[in-house]
Amino acid sequence: MALKARALYNFHSENKEEISIQENEELVIFSENSLDGWLQGQNSRGETGLFPASYVEILRSRSGSNYTDYSSSPAGSPRHDSFYADPPSAGISYQGSFEDDDDDDWDDWDDACTVVEEPRSTPGTNGHPSPSLQYPAAYGHHQHAGYHPKPALERQDSMSSSKRGSVVGRNLNRFSCFVRSGVEAFILGDVPLMSKIAEVYCIEMGSKGPQWKPNPHPFICSVEDPTKQTKFKGIKSYISYKLTPSNINSPVYRRYKHFDWLYNRLLHKFTVISVPHLPEKQATGRFEEDFIEKRKRRLILWMDHMTSHPVLSQYEGFQHFLCCRDEKQWKLGKRRAEKDEMVGASFLLTIQIPTEHQDLQDVEDRVDAFKAFSKKMDDSVLQLTNVASELVRKHVGGFRKEFQKLGNAFQAISHSFHMDPPYSLDALNNAISHTGKTYETVGEMFAEQPKNDLFLMLDTLSLYQGLLSNFPDIIHLQKGAFAKVKESQRMSDEGRMDQEEADGIRKRCRVVGFALQAEMNHFHERRVADFKRMMQSYLKQQIVFYQRVSQQLEKTLRMYDNL
């Protein structure tokens, strides 16, 4: 039930899932049950999203208490031990749109377990949940039945409890992605080491700096044959896609909701990687031919980026998604992926970095340069997207109409020449009439042309809009880590921290820095290849198009030669 509330303080949103609120602003709360200290509601401007529970009071009727003050409640308080708070009993989906076939039961996977069952807090980097959902071992109860966490052997550093008084302070802003992603806890050495880490992702030094070690078994995967299928005797309809990985050359069939499940596992696990966004959802028109074709094109690009990424392509959950054909094994693999402990900040424990020394100031300068580049590229991608979209609209509408008007005008001239038979020249009249029809044909060619060039360009631009939108949060993680290094070194110089502890923070900051640089390097490699291919394809299709137009006009021109 929606409740009225009042904002106690100003809050400025940091990402698209959050909304800004002003002191004394009237709000609508969708549920008074906070999720890791966050509420979902609507502000007075009609914006819907998340804001801190401790920043609002819920207004009650006279018969009840005046308000609920979350600022004193354990779940709502941004206190230092909120990292170990109990998980909420219900999840909230932050997807702004939905599809009917995404909300049905998962009978073709597992009736007893759905994506929604996993509590999801406010998304952090890449949409990651907050740290309190990343370390199940810290809770008295668990999200999944039968879950048995591995015992943590030790914290990352070997400090005794008597030294904890000198530790670097935590950020006061407990809502920043640096905190929510768990990277702050990793930098400070509070992420527990597991008894055994089965997966390892290596970073090596390349000609342009740190880079992910290539997948030793590279592969590609085709996305083909979107097919409408039904179940429940035709009551439920959906589209399935045929996926064929080159390493096994055996097809599997997946629905969009299966892609969506995988995408959420990727966001949950890979803190410092820019996970490519899935094609957008659509509530209506899901079975229209144009929409199905558009989604297929964009899934092909998404799959190409997944298989080319040295880390994402090796992820066990991704391999299971591509290769598993047995229903029983599928359910086991799905549950195993959902119980994965090496997610979020714990994923950083799986990264092995080179021994080469890197000056942290040089790393920060390099990150700052990439930040400025990515911002400029994001603006230019948006500009090109708007121009290309407008051009599509003109091709389909304006250009076709103008050529049709021109063709009709030529045919009107031809018809008028027939009005005085003694002076009428049939060959000329027919040639002018054919010219009119030619321009009508050219108009139809313009209307169809975006499918051959502009649509493919817009697909690539959409993919890169998603990739670029991930980097501000990822860069913020490195900035937060770098600030902790400076603070720890200052405390060490002042004698308030052991140098060994400060060195541990610096070492863990190197992991974040190397990972970000490796991701930057991979992004640039893909950017060069993708935009080269995009521009070549566009220009080739433009040449073919205008050659076809030229052929139509030349054919019409020859009709006037023998008059």
Write up what this structure looks like.
With 563 residues, the protein is α+β, with helices and mostly antiparallel strands. 43% of the residues lie in helices and 11% in strands. The strands form 3 sheets. It has a 6-stranded antiparallel sheet, with no helix packed on it. Helix 5 (316-323) packs antiparallel against helix 6 (327-338), helix 7 (360-417) runs parallel beside helix 10 (499-557) and helix 8 (426-448) runs antiparallel to helix 10. The protein is elongated. Residues 63-125, 127-155 and 157-166 have low confidence and may be disordered.
Show the helix and strand layout.
Elements lengths: L2 E5 L18 E4 L8 E5 L5 E5 L3 E4 L7 E3 L107 H4 L2 H5 L13 E6 L2 E4 L8 E11 L4 E10 L6 E4 H14 L19 H20 L7 H8 L3 H12 L12 E2 L7 H58 L8 H23 L5 H40 L5 H59 L6
Parallel strand pairs: 7-12
Antiparallel strand pairs: 1-2, 1-5, 2-3, 3-4, 5-6, 7-8, 9-10, 10-11
Pfam family, one: BAR_3_WASP_bdg
Keywords: Cell cycle, Cell division, Cytoplasmic vesicle, Endocytosis, Membrane, Mitosis, Protein transport, SH3 domain, Transport
Organism: Brachypteracias leptosomus
Please identify the structural class as seen in this structure.
alpha+beta
CATH class of the domain at 360-560: Mainly Alpha
Low-confidence stretches: 63-125, 127-155, 157-166
N- to C-terminal distance:
81 Å
- Report the strand count: 12
In CATH, the architecture of the domain at 360-560 is Up-down Bundle
Topology pattern, helix = H, strand = E: EEEEEEHHEEEEEHHHHEHHHH
CATH superfamily of the domain at 360-560: Arfaptin homology (AH) domain/BAR domain
What can be said about the biggest beta sheet? 6 strands, antiparallel
Helix content range: 40-55%
Cα-atom radius of gyration: 29 Å
Give the percentage of residues in beta strands: 5-15%
The CATH topology annotation of the domain at 360-560 reads as: Substrate Binding Domain Of Dnak, Chain:A, Domain 2
Averaged pLDDT:
80
Number of separate helices:
10
Main β-sheet, spatial strand arrangement: 4-3-2-1-5-6
Domain PX: 219-329
Protein name: SNX33 protein
Keywords: Cell cycle, Cell division, Cytoplasmic vesicle, Endocytosis, Membrane, Mitosis, Protein transport, SH3 domain, Transport
Organism: Brachypteracias leptosomus (short-legged ground-roller)
